[in-house]
């Protein structure tokens, strides 16, 4: 199963590089990108999971409604993306559920930072996708962690996919920079080896960041953004469809995993 996901947050990349940006502008960028993503998903007839911050959910109710109306899952991604707090695990669930009037079953910590397993379970989440076990120095270097889904207590951990050998990253930045033929080959190899492919993008990738030098965004991030990223997402989905790979939400995957692994016997 292909598990597409989008970390749907207020655009704060300029703030990471010392440039102030208003909430109005950051929301405009993220909302525009989300709408473009939804267009691609609708055209291809596939569903995905949108990990939304509380701030995004509260400030983009119409976009949230479209996400739900078109059959996608909404999960949680903290509250303020730039200033994550321990209390966000619970607060983001409260906010997102209040906006959507639907239960939020999953969580992903902003920037894949560590998050308390106890807090995740006590908040009532079914799954947590806050781990990127890649061979990259820094916060993604988790070589001692499993590459594929596993349980911690009653919560299913769903790591972002990395290649079976060397743990090469195949996440959003890889889609921007790898030659597309190689990137698609690595994605299909990982899917066939693991049985699932877990990937995430951000709405702001689908806005032309090169058109805004005032935001001081590094080239490694702004390369191939905007309409080129729309094309790349569409091409990636088409590659999976040609391989007859099914698409599903993280909650659907969690249900299927539970049925096949009987988590009750693990507690």
Structure in words:
- The protein has helices at 13-16, 23-44, 54-59, 61-69, 88-100, 117-122, 172-177, 180-194, 219-222, 227-242, 250-261; strands spanning 2-8, 49-52, 73-76, 106-107, 127-128, 150-152, 155-157, 197-201.
- By secondary structure, the chain is α/β, with parallel strands linked by helices.
- The strands form two sheets. The chain has a four-stranded parallel beta sheet with strand order 3-2-1-8. A four-stranded mixed beta sheet has the order 4-5-7-6.
- The chain is globular, with a radius of gyration of 17 Å.
Keywords:
267 residues; 8 strands; 4-stranded parallel β-sheet; 11% strand; alpha/beta; 11 helices
Largest beta sheet: what is the strand line-up?
3-2-1-8
Structural class: alpha/beta
Average per-residue pLDDT, rounded, comes to 95
What proportion of the residues form beta strands (DSSP E)?
A: 5-15%
User: In angstroms, what separates the terminal alpha carbons?
Assistant: 26 Å
Q: How helical, in percent, are the residues?
A: 40-55%
**Major beta sheet, specifics?**
4 strands, parallel
Number of helices: 11
What's the overall geometry? globular
- Please provide the count of β strands: 8
Written as H for each helix and E for each strand, in order along the chain, the element string is EHHEHHEHEHEEEHHEHHH
Radius of gyration: 17 Å
What are the segments in which pLDDT stays under 50 over at least 5 consecutive residues? none
């Amino acid at each position: 199963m292909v598990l597409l996901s989008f970390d749907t947050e207020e655009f704060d990349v300029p703030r990471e590089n010392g440039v102030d940006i208003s909430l109005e502008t950051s929301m405009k960028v993220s909302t525009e990108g989300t709408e473009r993503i939804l267009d691609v998903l609708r055209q291809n007839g596939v569903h995905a999971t949108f990990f939304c911050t509380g701030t995004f959910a509260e400030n983009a109710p119409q976009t949230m409604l479209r996400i739900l109306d078109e059959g996608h899952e909404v999960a949680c991604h903290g509250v303020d993306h730039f200033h994550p707090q321990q209390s966000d695990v619970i607060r983001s669930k409260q906010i997102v559920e209040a906006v959507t009037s639907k239960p939020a079953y999953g969580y992903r910590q902003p920037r894949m930072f560590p998050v308390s397993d106890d807090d995740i379970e006590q908040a009532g989440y079914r799954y947590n996708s806050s781990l990127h076990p890649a061979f990259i120095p820094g916060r993604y270097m988790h070589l001692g962690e499993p590459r594929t889904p596993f349980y911690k207590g009653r919560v299913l951990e769903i790591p972002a996919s990395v290649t079976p050998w060397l743990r090469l990253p195949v996440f959003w930045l890889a889609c921007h920079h790898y030659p597309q033929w190689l990137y698609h080959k690595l994605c299909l190899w990982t899917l066939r080896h693991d049985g699932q492919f877990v990937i995430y993008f951000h709405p702001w990738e689908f806005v032309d960041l090169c058109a805004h030098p005032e935001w001081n965004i590094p080239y490694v991030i702004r390369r191939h953004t905007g309409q080129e990223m729309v094309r790349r997402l569409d091409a990636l989905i088409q590659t999976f469809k040609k391989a007859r790979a099914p698409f599903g939400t993280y909650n659907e995957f969690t249900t299927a995993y539970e049925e096949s692994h009987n988590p009750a016997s693990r507690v």
